[in-house]
Amino acid sequence: FPRMVTYGQFRYRRWPGWFYFAATHLDHVSEPARVEAAKMLVALSRRLAQPLILAGDFNDHPDSRVYRILTGAESPLRDSWREAGRSEEGVSTQHPFDGSFFGSRIDWILVTPPFLVLETAIIRDNFEGRYPSDHFPYCIEVDSEFGSGQEA
Q1: N or C: more exposed end of the chain, with fewer CB within 10 A?
Q2: CA-based nearest residue to 9, from 59, 47, 56
Q3: Phi, psi of 37, deg, nearest 5
């Protein structure tokens, strides 16, 4: 299935520089397609050469090959969940539209320096037991060496 990454360049007026925010959704069927996409995302992060927040449905679990490519030594990206010291035990970001855990944490927000992860949360809100998606929203609060904690 065709996949893409959408990104934009932003400036927070209290910071001296610019940063990028990107969103993606990797293939849900093909592990080789996810691996190649991960390599392309690392290359993109290097080419942008500015701070980056990358959010998405990566359709793979932490510690998968895709995860290791995106957060390994060759990549500037770091997993916000782990940067915040969170455990993987009993954590899932997907569910079968009923709020019950299903699978593992496949939705990640990855950051590069100078972003510092202050807080993370998987939002499990619902309206009368109804959910708008089969994924729980994942949100982080970041700061940087420039200061001024902002939610992403």
Answers
A1: N
A2: 47
A3: -65, -40
Q: What are phi and psi of 21, to 5 degrees?
A: -120, 130
Q: Quick check: helix, strand or coil at residue 74? A: coil
Cα gap 76→61, rounded to integer Å = 19
Residue type, 22: A
Helix (H, G, I), strand (E, B) or coil at 83: helix
Q: How far is the C-alpha of 12 from the C-alpha of 142, rounded, in Å?
A: 12
Closest C-alpha among 115, 111, 135 to residue 123: 135
CB atoms within 10 A of CB 14: 10
Phi, psi (rounded to 5 degrees) for 140: -135, 155
Q: DSSP secondary structure string, 51-90? A: -EEEEEE-SS-TTSHHHHHHHSTT-S-EEHHHHTT---TT
- Taking the model in full, what pTM does it have? 0.92
For the stretch 10-44, pLDDT in tens is 998 878 889 999 999 999 999 999 999 999 999 99
